Amino acid sequence: MEDQQMCFPDLHTYTILLDVLCSNGEMDKAVSLLRLIEDKGFTPNIVSYNSLLNGYFKKGSMYEAWLLFLEIPNKGLVRDNRIYNTMIHGLFSANKFGEGLKLFQNMKDQQMCFPDLRTYNILLDGLCNNGETDEALLLLRKIEDKGFTPDVVTYGALINGLCKNGKHGLARHLFNQLQSYGVQPNVQIYTIIIGSFCQEGSFEEVKRLLLEMEDRGCGPNRATYNVIIRSLRKQNKAHRARSFMEEMREKGFSTDSATSSVPSGDDIFLKFMKDLASKEIVSYSFYVCFYACFVVSSAGRGSMQPKRFMSRSFKPDSIFCMLVMYEFLNAAA
């Protein structure tokens, strides 16, 4: 842009570039750019400093974040809600709950800016992660008393916190009230509640919620299915897991590393699947042949000869591999 001498970067351009560097964790370059901005005669604004704070916290550089936070007034800038929200959230994420809480109180005492709904959402999430769900429930009422309307983020944080702390009944009750509060549950909230039912083995309720999600135009995503499948695997319900994996595959989702990890006691299977993954196979008929061949062989009723099918071109996805794995392990049991 500068070489063409047709137009020159303005403060907005530099601010965008600074944010990109911070998002990518390139903090040394970001600080150098900040100095360059000042050398060019621009005054970095509060947005620039907020990007730097985010970047430091993402890298775990809490000390540098504190120094930058303290430096802001010396630059003639006023710390606004965004700065306080970033600092409080960063401290909570770094397991510095006490320091984050003190900063929240300082924000109120300074009366230079006041907590907004995002501030309270961060605080509520922090309380839940710290195991203080009773305080979080009280805070929900305070949020309403202060004239804010709790949103899907507010309820999502609270429902997640209640489930994490073993208060599943209370979480489900709150979930069932969302419609009356004018809040439409999103896929994240549904996934949390589905995970709660999975833990106690209520898979009929899980199916009901999956149908409800589809009806409300909020279909399950990859994370939803992975939660269900992992839970079924832990409960040794391979057959039920297989049906969800087939459904997941039909929707075009893939498993995550925890879901598709290989159970113990199947070194022979793992060897064949690694061999298979490196080949190129062409049609779905290969899957059927290999699937049948493997099951018959593992049951002792035939001889497996997978290499005879290796001359074609396609790669089995992670869900197909898991389906074969379950059949192999079940037949061998």
UniProtKB/TrEMBL annotation:
* PANTHER family given in the database record: PENTATRICOPEPTIDE REPEAT DOMAIN CONTAINING PROTEIN-RELATED, TETRATRICOPEPTIDE REPEAT (TPR)-LIKE SUPERFAMILY PROTEIN-RELATED
Annotated protein name in UniProt: Pentatricopeptide repeat-containing protein
InterPro entries in alphabetical order? PPR/CCM1_RNA-binding (IPR051222), PPR_rpt (IPR002885), TPR-like_helical_dom_sf (IPR011990)
The record, for Gene3D superfamilies, names:
Tetratricopeptide repeat domain
Pfam families (UniProt xref): PPR_1 (PF12854), PPR_2 (PF13041)
SUPFAM superfamilies, sorted? HCP-like
PPR repeats (start-end): 10-44, 45-79, 80-114, 116-150, 151-185, 186-220, 221-255
Q: Give the transmembrane region(s).
A: 281-300
Q: What is the protein's species of origin?
A: Salvia splendens
Q: Which UniProt keyword terms apply here?
A: Membrane, Repeat, Transmembrane, Transmembrane helix
Which PROSITE patterns did the record assign? PPR (PS51375)
